[in-house]
Amino acid sequence: MKASYEVRPGPEHFLPPAAANMGVRLPDPGQAILYGHRVSEEAAFEEAARQFLLAKVPTIFPGPLVLWAWNEAAAQKAVAVRHLYETIKSCVMPHQRAMLIPMPDYRPKYPKINPEVEINPNHPNLTIWHNRIDVGLFVGVHCHQANLTLKIVRGGTSCYTMALCAQAGHEDAMLSFRDITAQTIDRLAETVRDLHRAGVAETGGGVG
């Protein structure tokens, strides 16, 4: 099938189609995916950083694969994620609000969650709606739960989603990297800082 379908912020409809079924292919090693199209990692880093800097509520959603120190690589990624958050927080303008909201486990808790401090992949829209999140980065989320979450977000919200994947990436995000390491996350933080110094956050233009 021709990959003419673009993965854009929603709300699309109640049950958006899986991007893979619409012909969207995952990136090859050394590539990333942007709106359903494969691009260079460099282009994706710059776009991800731009989205963070222009968002009203740029938010990182770390999952259990980085929240729990189950191996040394996970511990290193957790440190890098915190560094990325602190970098974004230091670069955004006073009217912006950077957030870090954990996704510690996948047990359904609907509707008994506190959307100010947690997110669950079975109802991520509640947290996004409550906090008015317009850009969200998912990292350390198991692939099957990430795919579910990204479709729900795209179907019911206008949030721009990014996914950092240790495997092959996620076609249901607006932007996704594959084969990520702690160094990948640090590189994204550096790109945010570099674009901030270049005055990208002052150019306006909105998200999307």
Structure commentary:
- This protein has about 210 residues and is of the alpha/beta class.
- It has helices spanning about 40-55, 65, 70-90, 125-130, 145-155, 180-195, and strands at about 30-35, 35-40, 60, 100, 135-140, 160-165, 175.
- A 7-stranded mixed beta sheet has the order 2-1-7-6-5-3-4, sandwiched between helices.
- β1 and β2 form a beta hairpin.
- α3 runs parallel beside α6.
In short:
The chain has 208 residues and is α/β, with parallel strands linked by helices.
Task: Spell out the key features of this protein.
disordered C terminus; 13% strand; single chain; 208 residues; alpha/beta; seven-stranded mixed sheet; Rossmann fold; 37% helix; 6 helices
How are the elements arranged and paired?
Layout lengths: L30 E4 L2 E4 H14 L3 E5 L1 H4 L4 H20 L7 E2 L23 H8 L3 E5 L3 H14 L3 E5 L10 E3 L4 H16 L11
Parallel strand pairs: 3-4, 3-5, 5-6, 6-7
Antiparallel strand pairs: 1-2, 1-7
Helix pairs in contact: 1-6, 3-6
Number of strands: 7
Using the alpha-carbon principal axes, give the shape: globular
Assign the structural class, choosing from mainly alpha, mainly beta, alpha/beta, alpha+beta, or little secondary structure: alpha/beta
Strand order of the largest sheet: 2-1-7-6-5-3-4
Contiguous low-pLDDT stretches (5 residues minimum) are 203-208
CATH topology: Rossmann fold
Structural Rg = 16 Å
The major pleated sheet works out as:
7 strands, mixed
